[in-house]
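so the lab meeting is tmrw and i was supposed to have these ready like two days ago... anyway. pasting both below. for each one the top line is the aa sequence and the line under it is the structure tokens. i havent really looked at them closely yet so no promises
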Amino acid sequence: MRQVKLAAASTALVRRGAVLLEDALRTASLPDAPGGRVLVIRQLSLGTIHADRSPATLSLAVEQRVRELARLAVHARSQSAASAQAVYFQDELEPFVMLATRLAQGLPLDAWFWRLSVPGLHPGMSRDDALRLALANALRTEPGHAAAVTLVSELHALGALAPLLGALRWQDGPALARAWWGHLPSRPAPRLPLDDVGSAEQVSEPLRSALARWARTWGAGDARALWLASVALCTHIPSRVAAPNLPARAWRVLGALQASPTAHLPTPREPPRQAPLKPDAPTAPTDTGMVPGIAASSHPAVRALSSAPSSDNVTKPLDATPASSVELTGAPQSRARPAPADTDEAPGDTGTTPHETRQRYVTEEALPTVAGGLLFLVPMLNALGLGEFLAGHPALADLGIPERFLRHVAERLGVPSTDPLLRVLQEATAEPLPEPSPFVLPVRFQAGVGARAPFRLVREPTGRCVAFDARTRVPLASTSHGAALRPPFDRCLTTSLAHRLPWNDANLMLRASLLAVGRVTRRLAHMGLRELVLRPGRLVATRTHLDVVFAASQVDIRIRRAGLDLNPGWVPWLARVIQYHYQYDETGA
């Protein structure tokens, strides 16, 4: 709320009204829209505030008025948004995507809701500053850098990415890197031949061409190029955002582009004998002219980024595009010239053809699902150490192991393939897992599944070794071609087989995970997996959120006592914010 206007016969009554309103706003239960929908209200008129009534009475009036405005709200893209009393955005990222798109197209920002939906936006701000502000605000959302990946991906699909990249100054590169990883990753030593993990083929066209041309402009050693390469690697696999080896992959992508005969990427404009980028470059206390927020954005762990570094180890090219003023209340005749769209040409070239980029599956409205409880497995998998497992197996993380497992559970329980929840999960499960796919399940998983020693090792004629628990029911590790297993599986009782096991590595992982969540469900919630998963609900999927809405009658004390319906929030291995909601329907159920 920006401004409160109270009128009364005396100053004492105004003060009393202010106290009542403050208490009412603290206690009011405002509607919680699934999917992270953002509601912006132009004016909240509450009528007469009676001084002799309690704050609870006023809070009910606030709730009722907000609900009325929420029902009448129009989307920010609507032609009637400028005159509406309330507008909404589909999620917390959409205001910044729309802002950057309008800036790139030279459209005015004179509607009343822009300054309320984009913190820090003010009249007279230049176009470049406003674009960097959009990126900084995207980093402050709960998805953090996954939101920045979505922002870049959508602007690229709309052909409006070039103005944003052109607005980034050389100081912004180290600040973005530190906001992502907490430090400026040093460039790894070159390898000959280049490692497959960082090959440029992991970045699909035409984003690879855009990356090559902007890296040519900035220099392959510029921190902005490192940030853009990391974003490009996460475009089709958003869960890579949290991968610990992402900086190394991004550096190798830039190295592969630089080694390509068609790339013509310059080396960093540094003295010949100067050392490569250091993890912690010194910072300068002088004013750098950055938009406040890029250097101190996103998560609390990196709030120390309060100023842009001024290191000689960072290249300092000229701005790729000139800054232009953004008038929030300007007349139509004073619009800025439309910015060049993002094309495969070098920065600065013009073009208007948007690129086709695979978008994440989203639902326009809440769609019914028969497996609303499937996402109750998310906190369970977190407790079993799935994040630790994916960090130790980056190749498997890229292949969508969590989505594959959730889809496997749904299919085993008979969920139809047309269910919207399966539509979300099929994004990362299009291709089968390669064989072999060796793995070692973490210690937390072994404890959660109740695996007991002594472990048993089964050796196949092909050289593959599979470690099981003492009862030879739960597979815990697999390796191929006689490779040694890590402790404690290196001292297992070994049994040689004359034939292969009926499961490949992918089936072994799915079998182990299914046994684990089944046992944990019975131990914590005292119910079977089918009873937990197959409960009807409505799914709302946005680019950054997955929300499941249940009827209030679906509340189960067993699930609540086990903590399985506590909102997980941001889940890195799904690259989405997961939330559960219980709502009364029209019948009060």
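ok protien two:
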Amino acid sequence: MALRSDSKRRSFGIPGKDPKATKPSRQSKGAVRRTQMITTYGVGSLVALGDQSFLVSGLDTWRVNWAPVIYEPNLQRWLGVTHFRLPPADNPPSGDGVKIRRFPRWYSCSECKDLKPFKDFGVNEKNICPSCGTTLTPSRFIVACVNGHLDDFPYWEWVHRKKDSSGTKRTSSCRLSLHTTGTSASLASVVIKCSCGEQSSMAGSFGKEALRSIGVTCRCQRPWLGRGSDETGCDEAPRTMQRGSSAAWFPVHRSSLSIPPWSQRLQQLLNKHMNQIHKHRDDDTSLRIVIETFIDGTDFTVEQVLSALEDRDRLAEEPLDDDAKLDASSRLRTKEYKELESGVSAEHLEDEFECEPAPLDASASRPPGLDKVMLVKRLREVRALKAFTRVEAPDRLTLRERAAKLSLEKLDWLPAIEVSGEGVFLSLDNTLVRTWEQSPGPLHRADRIRGHHEGLLRERAARAGVKATKADLASEVDARFILLHTLAHALINEWSLDSGYPAASLRERIYSSDTMKGVLIYTAASDSAGSLGGLVAQGDTKRLQASLTSAMDRVSWCSQDPPCMESEASGTDSLNLAACYACVLLPETSCETNNAFLDRAMLIGTLESPETGYFTGLRTS
């Protein structure tokens, strides 16, 4: 995407390809890929462009009139919008870039050491210090709170914190400067000095209560939404963090596979004409005329279109509430699981979903422990950015209180991308998995992970002031989910070696509940990394047998053993047991739970309790 600027606001967007496009309204500042606009550089995130830093502005400022529209009725219903849009390109008519705002507002000069707001340097768009001609550097430190607010680091308050008790007030003669002693790489070597004689290093500024202890409270600022967007009444302690910290922005994504009937050619045709249909929905005669107009030249009939509209009416009546705490057991996943398990043959080349049983080889039986193996030869996934959080990764319990808004006013669309690919769907043997998950070993290990998860939920609910019931604080993570999740990771690692796909281009989709016991491993990337049948080929009976055996052998020993296998808790927030980057952890783009809830002992057991592993005794040479 490309960046444009005027005196107050800049923009960036996906590079356009239209040579006849009209002149952009603002100067381009940089470019990112469309996919990054919902994964890395979405609304409210910080983006470094050259020697400057900016904040991606709210959806209210995006020019999307000409940006491509995406439809996925199931996901639209779930998120309460009428459509999705691709992030706009940098050039009309596809769009005019995504607006950005300068942040942090404080800059420093490495030569004259001045530390002050960018506007006080008096350099307009030029990023050069007028005193010494040196390039200015954006503040390395920022402040955020768990409610999504963002602010500049309070340098003056930090330097003068020891004098605050005596009533010291800031005066216009106070000038701050930033110095690096170079004695070490620690924060103690970063020193802030004031012209009044006070000085202080940044050591200790990253403590959870460091800023609140000196009287600095959250100012409830939302600079990505512009002036007048600040909130009031935030009691959370502001936290210091590095400008480039990953904790400065956690996206909240929701995604859906396009499944029948929405993946079929007729529903795709309706997507393009729904606005026109809504205008005539109450008049049967005019509605039929409209339908006849847009189906002209196709093999569809008016009655088929009316039947398809009834499907949409039934979808609109579905309840929006979903008690599932994990995406793996949500109502949306239940719909997908049904289609994946039963299989769907494509009727038209334009159909976006095709799933068929893997052919059984007479010389090879189905891999032990599995019930069904389905080859997903064609799939489409829509991923939308719903909100974001800061400081702490999002969770279902506190998301309503913590989620930061993407726009000031509620819009009828969200930014999204659509990706196409292929995959393999595996479901476990129902009898075996039910027997296994009720045995002492899996129950004990799952209880340990669940206990850590519930402790985390209680802690976050207390900090957020959420009045949660016992049911709200109960974790849905169980032995079945951990087994499916770890199996997906083991196979992704194995297939990344066997098939040539990089692990980062493969993704997992877990289906786990009392009625679901499956996992979909698929490639769905906006580039060319895997949509040519290479992953589907891994579902061949002989190949799957070999890769499953190899995957179990590979995770049976880790270079970090015995500490890895004997770990009582590992990973972020202690939500893993036997799992590390030397055995089953994956790139974050591949895992839907940020590498949490993993335990390879669920696959192959432990030395003391081999029966804990689901595949123990089922493995073949």
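from a quick look at the 2nd one: The chain has 15 helices and 22 strands. The radius of gyration is 27 Å. will dig more after coffe
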